[in-house]
């Protein structure tokens, strides 16, 4: 089967960039991205592509090239489903906030709604592709909905997990380490797999495209994220030991990273990992393991989250302790709110939890982030429901300029590793702050010696 029309349900951090790159690389395929959210689609269609709703380096240029040619954004979900041969599901799968599995299992209500909608509309055979990260064996549930509520139409379900990381989404998509496609081992399943392999072959070498059965593909995504997150929690665990023993975690990371069996990536000690995937996927893995009665497996992976929570709390405690055990009424400036650099995404960002702890200690928080809006920061804090929105509004000040944000502060805390922070005139910042002036570098991006030479009391992570 030759694919000429693709639809993607969900115009978020995964669906938007992925479809933009498919459209750019496959001009012969019409790609329509649909979403229920009218504002989001309007933003994707904004004539000025700098205003698209997701900030990713290089993305607005790709959208400018392909939009209107073979890339379309629309709220007309039904029409796009009807026309497409392949439907990607890229909707959100947050951790459940209610009922069985609350706080652990993935909430599949959006996925199920999509499946029901596809079943209702489809009049011809279709390939349905799971793009969102899902619990292992979700494809089975989707298949059951499609087969039992459809119009006799044949569906093939493929799992094609997305491995892009935010902030580098475009380069990850253009030059992926691998593409993973899981499908049925039946002849129809193999045909569907091959059709999707053909799409990716337009720009990815064939030997980087792996095909597996559906369950392996689904579980590989959870496993990859669990391993990556585990590396961060492992190095963060060492960072605490380094602080007690006089070792330096950056030196330890470098030394172990040169062992080719370990490798140097994902060994950067930090205030803790954030993002929409790691915590959610590990909790999901823990839930699945528990549901099969595998308590040792569940406990093993849960420890990665426990360590990460500890690291965030340890950072806020360190700030309080260093500032003479009280931060009440002190101005503490956060540089960065996003969960990592080069993204405007704040989901599960360490900044939210550190701010919450410090506000509980009655600190006055000022924030500067190059890409995150004030309303987003306040809604992140409101989501924790620790205090009223009005209180959050009164206690958090947001600046468009880092120097203004740091003016008169008792301490600066670096929560995101934005490159621009390294290029600041730190002497100027020092001069404008209360003395002694403290810097808590939650990302280890500044040079301790240089900061101390200026006069700062500098504390990084793990040294
Ligand atoms: C992750 C996976 O990398 C990606 O493959 C998957 O598709 C989605 O989840 P993402 O969450 O977008 O991607 O970003 P990632 O670069 O993995 O960073 C996650 C968090 O870990 C960030 O908060 C980052 O700052 C932190 N991190 C990363 C560290 O603290 N240290 C490191 O060495 C690497
Ligand atoms: P991700 O990071 O996984 O891409 P996002 O929350 O950024 O997650 O994007 C998911 C998108 O899916 C949201 O814009 C949401 O409005 C959309 N969505 C959820 N359910 C449906 C649905 N049934 N039909 C269309 N769009 C949906």
Would you kindly provide a written description of the structure presented here, covering whatever features stand out?
The chain is an alpha/beta fold. The protein has 3 domains: 5-204, NAD(P)-binding Rossmann-like Domain (Rossmann fold, 3-Layer(aba) Sandwich), CATH 3.40.50; 223-304, NAD(P)-binding Rossmann-like Domain (Rossmann fold), CATH 3.40.50.720; 306-459, 3-Layer(aba) Sandwich (Rossmann fold), CATH 3.40.50.720. The protein is built from 18 helices and 14 strands. The chain has helices at 15-25, 38-44, 59-66, 77-83, 109-121, 138-149, 169-174, 187-201, 214-245, 249-257, 278-291, 295-322, 350-360, 374-384, 389-395, 402-406, 426-432, 448-454, and strands at residues 5-9, 30-34, 71-74, 86-89, 126-130, 155-159, 179-183, 209-213, 331-335, 364-368, 396-398, 411-414, 438-441, 457-459. The protein has a 6-stranded parallel sheet, with helices on both faces. A 6-stranded parallel sheet has the order 11-10-9-12-13-14, with helices on both faces. Strands 7-8 form a two-stranded parallel ribbon. Strand 7 (179-183), helix 8 and strand 8 (209-213) form a beta-alpha-beta unit. It starts with a strand and ends with a strand. Adenosine-5'-diphosphate binds next to helix 5. Catalyzes the conversion of UDP-glucose into UDP-glucuronate, one of the precursors of teichuronic acid. It catalyses: UDP-alpha-D-glucose + 2 NAD(+) + H2O = UDP-alpha-D-glucuronate + 2 NADH + 3 H(+). Belongs to the UDP-glucose/GDP-mannose dehydrogenase family. It is an enzyme of class 1 (oxidoreductase). The active site is at 277 (nucleophile).
């Amino acid at each position: 089967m030759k694919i000429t029309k693709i639809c993607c349900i969900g115009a978020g951090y995964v669906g938007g960039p992925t479809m933009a790159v498919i459209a750019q690389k496959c001009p012969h395929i019409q790609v329509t991205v649909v979403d229920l959210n009218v504002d989001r689609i309007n933003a994707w269609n904004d004539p000025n592509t700098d205003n698209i709703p997701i900030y990713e380096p290089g993305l607005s240029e790709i959208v400018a090239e392909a939009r209107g040619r073979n890339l379309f954004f629309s709220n007309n979900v039904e029409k796009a489903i009807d026309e497409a041969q392949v439907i990607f599901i890229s909707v959100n799968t947050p951790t459940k906030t209610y009922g069985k599995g609350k706080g652990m299992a993935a909430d599949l209500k959006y996925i199920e709604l999509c499946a029901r909608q596809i079943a209702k509309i489809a009049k011809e055979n279709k390939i349905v592709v799971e793009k969102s990260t899902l619990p292992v064996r979700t494809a089975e549930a989707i298949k059951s909905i499609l087969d039992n509520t459809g119009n006799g139409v044949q569906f093939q379900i493929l799992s094609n997990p997305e491995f892009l990381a935010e902030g580098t989404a475009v380069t990850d998509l253009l030059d992926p380490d691998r593409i993973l496609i899981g499908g049925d081992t039946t002849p129809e399943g193999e045909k569907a797999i091959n059709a999707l392999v053909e799409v990716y072959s337009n720009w990815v070498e064939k030997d980087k495209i792996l095909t597996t059965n559906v369950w392996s593909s689904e579980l590989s995504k959870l496993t990859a994220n669990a391993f990556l997150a585990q590396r961060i929690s492992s190095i963060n665990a060492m960072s605490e030991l380094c602080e007690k023993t006089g070792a330096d975690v950056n030196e330890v990371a470098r030394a172990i990273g040169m062992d080719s069996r370990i490798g140097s990536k994902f060994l950067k000690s930090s205030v803790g990992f954030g993002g929409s995937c790691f915590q959610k996927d590990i909790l999901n893995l823990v839930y699945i393991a528990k549901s099969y009665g595998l308590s040792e497996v569940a406990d093993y992976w849960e420890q990665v989250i426990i360590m990460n929570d500890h690291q965030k709390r340890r950072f806020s405690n360190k700030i309080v302790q260093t500032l003479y055990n009280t931060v009440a009424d002190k101005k503490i400036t956060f540089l960065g709110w996003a969960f990592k650099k080069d993204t405007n995404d704040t989901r599960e960002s360490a900044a939210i939890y550190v701010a919450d702890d410090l506000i509980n200690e009655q600190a006055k928080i000022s924030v500067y982030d190059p890409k995150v809006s004030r309303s987003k920061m306040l809604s992140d804090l409101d989501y924790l429901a620790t205090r009223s929105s009005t209180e959050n509004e009164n206690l958090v000040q947001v600046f468009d300029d880092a120097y203004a944000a740091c003016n008169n502060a008792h301490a600066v805390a670096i929560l995101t590793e934005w490159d621009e922070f390294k290029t600041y005139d730190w002497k100027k910042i020092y001069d404008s702050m209360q003395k002694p002036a403290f810097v808590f570098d939650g990302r280890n991006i500044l040079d301790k010696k240089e900061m101390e030479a200026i006069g700062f009391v500098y504390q990084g992570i793990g040294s």
